[in-house]
Amino acid sequence: MDSEDSAAPRAVTACLLVIGDEVLSGRTRDANLPYLARWLGEIGIQLREARVVPDVPQVIADAVLTCRQAFDYLFTTGGIGPTHDDRTTVAVARAFGAQVTLSDEAVARLEAYYGPGQLNEARLKMAHVPTGARLIDNPITGAPGFQLENVLVLPGIPRLVQAMLEVLRPRLTGGQPLRSATLRALYRESDLAPDLTRLVQEMPGIQVGSYPFFQGERPGVSLVIRTADEALLARARDALRRLLLRVGAELLEES
Amino acid sequence: MDSEDSAAPRAVTACLLVIGDEVLSGRTRDANLPYLARWLGEIGIQLREARVVPDVPQVIADAVLTCRQAFDYLFTTGGIGPTHDDRTTVAVARAFGAQVTLSDEAVARLEAYYGPGQLNEARLKMAHVPTGARLIDNPITGAPGFQLENVLVLPGIPRLVQAMLEVLRPRLTGGQPLRSATLRALYRESDLAPDLTRLVQEMPGIQVGSYPFFQGERPGVSLVIRTADEALLARARDALRRLLLRVGAELLEES
Asked: What is the pLDDT of chain A when averaged over all its residues?
């Protein structure tokens, strides 16, 4: 990745751990990764890896340990609900060698949502967090997430995740956001590739992704430029546009 | 996971490595995981983990090494096209300590698709595979994937993946497929959870997933039972149905 050149400022990085048998069985299609990736990108945090793991505490704990060391932030989604298959809290506590304890603050938030005296044993489960954790407010259903050092534990339901990320925003420190530009053209990727490779080699400090597609039977290619440097972005965009026009590609869209 | 009980036959497992900056940037939403998960499930192979990694050869190589040791099969998608950002072949070779060499067989397949003498340097790149690799036919665009021991390297485009999985099917050895049943009911998950937990504890050898949803403003829950044992599946489904009716839930659907 050109963004790792020694000349570039250090990027702020994140990893996402998607927790849930339902994603690994193919029953549920994860929607949190693309949302989180774009949301983090806007505040200058680059999502660098994602993992999907089953509802198995030791597997979750091992992944938490590994990923929180490798990246600045680790987000987890899923597994903090009231049922027997919600095992994330226990697993994250295990990764930190922490106990799971009842949070009075979480009890108060859940009672505000469900009503006083309405916390059965399952709802009380959602008020348990690892010792030392800081709650993450859930403005929709009351059941909080929590933060332990650089690990941010969120539920699986996308509209809850999206609301809780807004709560989290002031706690996160991003770097310089990557800017991107996209050129879509009708042209076969493998015909463009030799010239494209040479051009990219002449422009250090940017990433250029090349993604083929078909419009009906006609082959097309999307070129996506990403860099934190606005001037570099403009130059790369011009150079790629010139290349596409020179080879006779039909330019569909530029954004 | 109850399927890991010592009494149960050993499960055949798989991991998916999704390779591509475009997924980690949120630009492209991966569609291969849910398809592969279901497809593998039907032939008795359980997808147990997935990872999404960027187009960085060393990161890819490290993930290949780790995941191919932890699971029976490792599938990779993405990064075997003709452009500079397609780095999977080099990375997989590195993980095996193998060289990348031109495959005459792959050249013949690509020439059949593009026409004789039409292989420029970029297309020839797609004819390079690690030494010792066995090709995986691509019935749609000619550019093959490859297999190296338990690692199966596929492109990123879903319709190519789906076609190439059919080519692969005879090479894969599955175990006993998991069977599943789903009950959807209108009832708040956290009200059901205490009884549900007790019921699941009384039924070893099955997995029961509980997934809350909203139908308009009304809370609902989907209960998904998974087991390889058909008789056990039927008993668990009956027990869960009785529980839902006993608490007064409105049963929406059973499948």
From this structure: 93
pLDDT, tens digit, for every residue of B208-254? 999 988 898 899 999 999 998 999 999 999 999 999 999 999 999 99
Q: How far apart are CA A47 and CA A49, in angstroms?
A: 6
- Please name the amino acid found at residue B78: G
Whole-structure pTM over 0.90, yes or no?
yes
Beta pairing, strands B45-53 & B12-19: parallel
Report how many Cβ contacts below 8 Å link chain A to chain B: 190
| Nearest residue of chain A to residue B32 (CA atoms) | A26
pLDDT at residue B59, rounded to an integer? 98
Q: Which two structure tokens, joined as six digits, stand for B227?
A: 């087991």
Evaluate if residue A8 carries a pLDDT over 80. no
Neighbours of A15 (CB within 10 A): 26
Write the CA distances from A80 to A161, A205, B181, B220, integer angstroms: 12, 41, 23, 17
Residues 6 or more apart in contact with residue B249 via CB below 8 angstroms: B185, B186, B187, B192, B221
Place of tokens 């009980």: B5
> In residues, how long is chain B?
255
Asked if the Cβ–Cβ distance from B81 to A189 is below 8 Å, we say: yes
User: Which chain B residues touch A31 with a CB distance below 8 Å?
Assistant: 29
